[in-house]
Amino acid sequence: MELGRLEYLQALVTEFQVTDSTEAKEQVLANLANFAYDPSNYEYLRQLQVLDLFLDMLTEENETLVEFAMGGLCNLCLDKTNKEYILEANGVEPIINCLSSSNEETVVSAVTTLMFLTTPRSRAQTTALPVVECMLRFSLSANTRLSNLASIFLQDYCSPPQVEEARNLSKHTAVGIPLPKD
């Protein structure tokens, strides 16, 4: 008997919750992140509290779990309801913390997610001075993907005075966020 979409997603969430295998958790989270790409799954994923699961995984020590959770949030946050949920759940801070990941995919997803989450109400948080400083540093990266994405962030989401303030501050301080590994 074939499972319906909701039942299948519920089975994945249950498997994630009950398994002790790190490899199985990674695989399930990757599957959930992929399902988050399809807008027809958004309601089911909200119902199953997958947004909370993704947000919770952002603080895990396992970089693979963080990568897939960040990718899942990136896939979900273009939807207005999901965006509001992430903002209301104080999701911006753990997303900003992912900017210091050594995993390139995690960082790229975090930058993209911050772009998608920027609204007039959230802009002060998504473009806070430490974020702008980080984007300035990323814009100088040899990694073209990261450099281009950070440059777009600075141009489209930050005001010229914000960028100038971050530039001036960066001249006087050591920025401690490492660039992700290629």
How are the SSEs ordered, and which strands pair?
Layout: H1 5-18, H2 22-35, H3 42-47, H4 50-57, H5 63-76, H6 80-88, H7 92-97, H8 104-117, H9 123-126, H10 129-139, H11 144-157, H12 160-172
Short summary of the structure?
This is ARMC7 protein. The protein is mostly helical and 182 residues long.
| Secondary structure tally: strands | 0
Q: How much of the polypeptide forms β-strand, as a percent range?
A: under 5%
What radius of gyration results from the CA coordinates? Answer: 17 Å
For the record, the count of structural domains works out to: 2
Taking all residues together, what is the mean pLDDT? 93
Q: What name does the CATH topology of the largest domain carry?
A: Leucine-rich Repeat Variant
* H/E element order: HHHHHHHHHHHH
Helix content: 55-70%
Level-2 CATH architecture of the largest domain: Alpha Horseshoe
For the biggest sheet, the summary is: none
Overall geometry comes to globular
CATH class of the largest domain: Mainly Alpha
| Terminus-to-terminus distance | 44 Å
Judged by helices, strands and strand pairing, the structural class is: mainly alpha
Protein name: ARMC7 protein
InterPro entries: ARM-like, ARM-type_fold, Armadillo, ARMC7
ARM repeats: 49-91
